[in-house]
Amino acid sequence: MFNFLSLTLLLIALIAPVVILIRKEEKLLWRTRYVFASAPGAYAGIGWLLANLGYELLDCKGGLKDIHACMASAHDLTFLIEHGFFLMLVFMFIAGPLSLWLIFNTALKQLGKWHEKQKI
Questions:
Q1: 110: Cβ–Cβ under 8 A, 6 or more apart, which residues?
Q2: Three-class SS of residue 107?
């Protein structure tokens, strides 16, 4: 169940900013556009960093995959650590490049609007 929810949240974090930037672009402030543009990379990157931090703090070493017994107050958090490490792959190959492209595209559009304003 958690795998389905975490992958659904990941898909929303990757797709929703692109759809919002395409459909509602003219209504958004520039700062808001940059926040939406950086959202996919931020979600995956922060998840990855939290997994690294949790791996060290919860002492998750051991077992077959070298992740075992990630316990915090009698709750097993191994699935969160594993999902965070999965987000590393998503960040490197999908979310990071997507965010860079969206930020670059937003910056070029902002420069184009600024240039049009300067001509008048």
A1: 30, 33
A2: helix
Helix (H) or strand (E) holding 31: helix 30-57
In what helix (H) or strand (E) does residue 5 lie, and over which residues does it extend? Answer: helix 2-23
Comparing CA positions, the residue from 26, 31, 43 lying closest to residue 98 is 43
Residue 108 one-letter amino acid = L
Q: What are 29's two structure tokens?
A: 């402030």
Q: Which two tokens stand for residue 35?
A: 């926040």
Residues 84, 85, 91, 92, Cα dihedral to 10°: 170
**CA–CA gap between residue 80 and residue 8 (Å, rounded):** 14
Q: From first to last of its 120 residues, what are the pLDDT tens digits of the chain? A: 788 999 999 999 999 999 999 999 899 999 999 999 999 999 999 999 999 998 888 877 766 666 667 778 888 888 888 899 999 999 999 999 999 999 999 999 999 999 988 876
